[in-house]
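ugh ok so i messed up the first submission bc i forgot one of the chains. this is the corrected input, ALL of the components this time, i swear. 681 residues overall. if the numbers dont match what u have on ur side tell me asap before i send this to the collaborators (the ones from the other lab, u know who)
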Amino acid sequence: MNNFGFYIMILGLILSLHSSLFFFLGEIKNRKELINSAKRSFYIVILMVVISSFSLIYSFLANDFSNIYVANHSSLDMNRALTLVAFYSGNEGSLLYILFIHVILSGIMYKFSPSNIKSKLNFSCSILTIITSFYLFALIFFANPFEISEFIPLDGKGINPLLRHPGMYIHPPLLMSGLASISIPFVLCQGSLFDKTNSNNWHTILRVWCLISWAILGCGLLIGAWWAYTILGWGGYWSWDPIENVGLMPWLVLTALIHSIMVEERRGIFRLWNIILISLTFVLALLGTFINRGGPVVSVHSFAASTLGFLFLIFMIVMTFYSVISIIFNYKNLTNNKNKIESYLSREASLLLNNILLVVTSLVILWGVIFPVVSIILNDTEISVSAPYFDKTAGPIFLFIIILMGIGPILSWRMTTKKATIFRLLPSIIITVILGLYIYISGIKEFFPFISFVSIFFVLTIIFREWIGGTKSRMINSYNPIPSFITMIVSNRGRNGGYVVHIAILALAFGVVGTKFYDERLDINVSVSEEIEFRSYSILFKEIKQEFIGDNSITKAIFEISKITDLSKKNKIVAMHSYYPNYNQISVRSAILSTPVEDLYIIPKDFIDENNMTIRIAINPLAWWIWISGPILILGTLITLWPNKTKRN
Amino acid sequence: MEFILSIIFLILVISSTIIILKPFITRNKKND
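and heres the new structure output, hopefully the right one now
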């Protein structure tokens, strides 16, 4: 099976190169048979990648330890449900997984593109298959997941203990899919550069694919944070690790792009800016893969043994060079629109400011990521940049972005008068001032959290006011507000879906501010049957339990939690250490009692003996809101992406 | 197993070649 999978990849590479060349030649020479041939190999490549992926899955299921990758990432006692996780848990398999997602999304994009665009996609598909060829080349020559060992071990090493968590079914696949999917809007943008008809049809498809990439990447990041929160056992969810940052940077630039595409669609301006943004997003996504695979920056996520870094570095440089050249060659065409921003008090001006802030945040983060490398080059000593740098630089910019999120959508296109803006904002300002006073009286007096909470409520009141106004105007024929509200949402899905996404971001910000400024910690030694009171909680340490699953030993600490004000209602939570001898590694899982107000978070630091242990008790206020933002974000994206019947017809 | 997989691989190679060459064959026939 291993040889089969490997040769299928070689066949895929040949077909992919053929497809790329023929798409290009067909477009240049305007010969249909070349394009038809390229189309066919484009689809066959998808089949080849699917077959080689299933070959690897088969090797896992058959416990074929002659395959080095399978031997290193699974074992006889591994739960078969973890096969998929094992598939992408290593360097080689994850690259095959990225390729799998890349070709599937490419196929979906090509198959379901509107007919008026499909005929113009030849150049886009040519670049797309070059990217496919690159991945296949890397897999065949540098990271072969089908490499065979001369000595067949009796049992495999097993899957990395940290990856044995439900979040691992979603976080790495979503994050890798998100990064891989960015190539689709990138090639579409490149294709649009060569469409001399200056057609406007590109905007819709571009916006759809940007939104898809954005939502996948966003959810991947959020679930990664959730995984860190629940399994890594350090009490936080975001450590500004280089890999987290390189996932966040393209997401921020994509956020900017989604907004600025609207301006191009509406006013025909920002075309050059959009091309720069998508090229930047693509290069940042490649930078992520470069750092992840043996790049110069140390990260907890890196594949230590990977030597693929230089390959991705070359590819990143080539693609950056290509993007710059394509922009220079099309400069005149990109800047020939005579429309301009007419007023600073307009929707497009606010979106431009939002774009600048998002890109600046991204660059500030990028500087923090590459600073250790820069410091080595300049001073011969590595200086790492830690969380306070990112908090102090990115934090205030995010606050500005949130405020803009409220003001921007109520401004009109072209220009709005000061009077009209104040008139529209006034009710929200009044409500926010009252809420602000309440927040201040209730004890939140520090500057940054106070301003953050006030800004969040300000934006929220603006969104709700818009919705209430819209619903009221539709209630003329009906007395029931619910159907009127739904009709209002459906009538302008793009705008209202955007509002729902904004609510998700507000929920996220609400949680981040709460956990960042008001968390409390207590390190303490506890004995079985001891009862501790911490803030409003009564914590009874009930018992320590030892369990064995195969070679792995699990030590559980069981706690009974009740509120001091209501001792009758008890909740049982479990914290544990799982020891994995194959990896000589302990996986820590914290005990969490989560409510919308705050999380009680108990980290099992050390089991001293059968009756005593050291724990850290933490209160993480509003953490629940961070996780609820995920489903809201998906809902908002779905509302935005849901096809419009009239448009489709 | 290896033998069956070799045959499958061979079939895939031949069929892929035919599929991607077909647009040229059809065009030549039309020209004739």
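quick check: DSSP finds one helix and no strands in chain B. that seems consistent at least. Residues 2-31 of chain B form the longest helix (30 residues).
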